[in-house]
Specification:
Layout (H helix, E strand, L loop, with lengths): L118 E2 L1 H12 L1 H14 L5 E2 L1 H59 L17 E5 L8 E6 L2 E5 L8 E2 L4
Parallel strand pairs: 1-2
Antiparallel strand pairs: 3-4, 4-5, 5-6
Helix pairs in contact: 1-2, 1-3, 2-3
Length: 272
């Protein structure tokens, strides 16, 4: 039957005197039978420390206590463990993935080993503001701010990118506006100059014909009796054959002529 031992047979290790099996723990270093502790005369396993007050078998020496488990690789044992701190890619004191460059998870570390408080790059802010006011300045500042925000401990990259995009859009709109406004402005300027030249030639022509009718001959030059023409430069060219003189007037890039051949009507050209 279970629990009985034939007379004269040797009991296996781990059985109590009354024939009942003892409870066992894992058979590894630093472990012992749970029922053996505290019982007089129970043997102890080599290397296992005895509990205070637990009797040991007389004459059986005990070895000094050992740690229940061997230390893991890379972890110091003894006095060095008090001053040991984690190091490597996961050290919290190193530069972190979420706080700066590096492979850890901590905030950026300054030259002296202290944490660096992230600050917004001033050029990125200035570039964003200037992109609405003066896009050429905003474009330059945004490019500089975009380069500087790549350093550890600097913020404001979003402002630099926004300032750069707004400046580029403003530049495109400026080019489109210039391509429309400049031709219209030049055309209106040409029309205004032609109007002034035509008016100057008309008043000078009237003076020329009036003088010829009063004196019986055309004047040989513009005198003090000729009308003022303002910014328009009027010239009287006498015909060498004694015929009617020719008039031309110039203002800026506009030159028109009034000759006797066309009845003194202002047309583009000059007297030659």
């Amino acid at each position: 039957m279970v629990g009985s031992t034939p007379p004269g047979a040797q009991r296996p290790s781990g059985w109590q005197a009354d024939g009942t099996p003892a409870a066992w723990l894992p058979d590894g270093p630093g472990f012992a039978q749970s029922t053996a502790l505290g019982q007089p005369g129970a043997p102890t396993q080599p290397g296992m420390p005895t509990q205070p007050g637990a009797p040991t078998q007389p004459g059986v020496p005990t070895q000094p206590g050992q740690p229940p488990f061997p230390p893991a690789a890379g972890f110091p044992v003894g006095p060095a463990a008090a001053s040991w701190s984690p190091s490597g890619p996961s050290a919290m004191a190193g530069p972190g993935r979420f706080g700066g460059a590096g492979t850890g998870y901590g905030r950026p570390v300054g030259p002296a080993g202290g944490f660096v408080t992230p600050r917004t790059e001033p050029t990125a802010v200035a570039g964003f503001i200037c992109s609405f006011l003066m896009w050429p300045v905003g474009l330059v500042l945004s490019i500089v701010g975009l380069a500087r925000t790549g350093r550890p401990g600097s913020r404001g990259r979003g402002l630099a990118v926004a300032g750069l995009l707004i400046s580029l859009m403003a530049a495109v709109l400026s080019v489109l506006a210039a391509s429309i406004v400049v031709p219209v402005y030049l055309n209106q300027r040409q029309i205004a100059q032609e109007t002034q030249v035509t008016s100057a030639l008309g008043s000078t022509r009237d003076w020329l014909l009036t003088t010829q009718a009063r004196n019986g001959a055309f004047p040989m030059a513009l005198d003090s009796t000729a009308p003022a023409t303002g910014d328009v430069s009027v010239r009287l060219v006498v015909d060498a054959a004694g015929g009617a003189p020719c008039l031309d007037a110039t203002l800026g890039s506009t030159t028109m002529v009034a000759s006797p051949q066309n009845g003194y009507q202002p047309v583009p050209g000059s007297c030659g």
